Amino acid sequence: MTWHLYTSPRSPFVRKVMIAAHELGLADQITTQDVVTTPMTPAPELLVDNPLGMIPTLMAGERMIFDSLTILEVLNDAAGGALFPAGTRQDCLTRHAMANGMMDKAVRILDEQFRAQNGDTEAHIAGFVAAIKRGISWMEPRLTEGRFDAGDIAFCALLAYLDMRFPKFLWLADAPVAARWYADISTRPCVADTAFQTPPFV
Amino acid sequence: MTWHLYTSPRSPFVRKVMIAAHELGLADQITTQDVVTTPMTPAPELLVDNPLGMIPTLMAGERMIFDSLTILEVLNDAAGGALFPAGTRQDCLTRHAMANGMMDKAVRILDEQFRAQNGDTEAHIAGFVAAIKRGISWMEPRLTEGRFDAGDIAFCALLAYLDMRFPKFLWLADAPVAARWYADISTRPCVADTAFQTPPFV
């Protein structure tokens, strides 16, 4: 297995992966490549198979793997590491979520500062919309009838959310496979029973 | 084990958890409670033990568990479910990350729209800063000498990032336990070898 990691020199999420790689003794086996990627202009290298254009992204052979937590688990498994101790896994994941959430907020402070300078709210929205559309296209060939795992549940909840919040964008008009899959999955009791409340919207 | 889930009627992350709970046959065992929580005004119910104030948050007995992926795994384990099939786990987690990333961007579109109306960039930044400070305080009693799991790696990378990007805020002045832990952990080769590049900052 060859490993190639797309990185950015000042990303806390990349740093997390790099610390883990070193701790696990895998750092020498991973080539790295810095890319410049933002919500408005994602790096073309990433768009090949990660339409959100986020770093870190790991090429494991021919496969692109993300996000940083998934990469941590993949590296830990490959090394037989102990970064997710079975006995304290729940506690470990909750602490990880707390740290990761703080990272997200820290990165957004920077983003807010740039935005205040540039007044580019519209550009931000356009970047998010484009990322979502690319994400749906990415998901389409990966949908499988009959399977209903955590990835499927997350995608189903996303489509339901878009349907409720942004119906005017007609997300599924250009995504016939996802539209069919969503129609099918929506008949499952677990999806129907948890439907979002309808207007008034807040 | 009693389960109590803090929810919001239109959160895609909550919906994801609710779909999973229904699919796993656990929905009847989970009480839910809607709360109103934003980056600027987190819900007081959550601040008890989730200083980021994000939903969904699960009370499992006396413990607060988050984020949505951690909750999914906890419920799946409790039910002996198949939401994370061992044979396709890596693929499942990558698809989950893609869907979750799209959710994040979708929610941020709304946030951008509110912000454009309100011009509250400063309030956003203050909200993020406050959340991070609360997060560090939350983490302090959970730090353990000698342990170095995925949660610790994430926290370490966060502190390094804050150190680099926002040194003027002196995050650790009010957090002596975290400061000591960070000084100690920073001597690990895996942390030292992956240090962030120093200025010029971009």
Structure commentary:
The structure is a homodimer of 202-residue chains. Chain A has a 4-stranded mixed sheet. The mean pLDDT of chain A is 87. With 202 residues, chain A is an alpha+beta fold. Chain A is built from 8 helices and 4 strands; from the N terminus they run E-H-E-H-E-E-H-H-H-H-H-H. In chain A, helix 1 runs parallel beside helix 3 (68-79). Helices cover 53% and strands 8% of the residues of chain A. The first copy, chain A, has 2 domains: 3-84, Glutaredoxin (3-Layer(aba) Sandwich), CATH 3.40.30; 143-202, no CATH class. Chains A and B meet through helix 1, helix 3, helix 4, helix 5 and helix 6 of A and helix 1, helix 3, helix 4, helix 5 and helix 6 of B.
- Report the largest inter-chain contact: A-B, 95 and 95 residues
The major pleated sheet of chain A works out as: 4 strands, mixed
Total of helices of chain A: 8
Give the strand line-up of the largest sheet of chain A: 2-1-3-4
Can you say what the CATH homologous superfamily of the largest domain in chain A is? Glutaredoxin
If you average the pLDDT of chain A, what whole number results?
A: 87
Tally of discrete structural domains of chain A: 2
- Spatial separation of the terminal alpha carbons of chain A: 48 Å
The overall strand count of chain A is 4
Shape of chain A: globular
Model regions low in confidence, pLDDT < 50 over at least 5 residues of chain A: none
CATH class assignment of the largest domain in chain A: Alpha Beta
What letter string, H or E per element, gives the SSE order of chain A? EHEHEEHHHHHH
Give the oligomer, counting copies of the same chain as homo and different chains as hetero: homodimer
Helix content of chain A: 40-55%
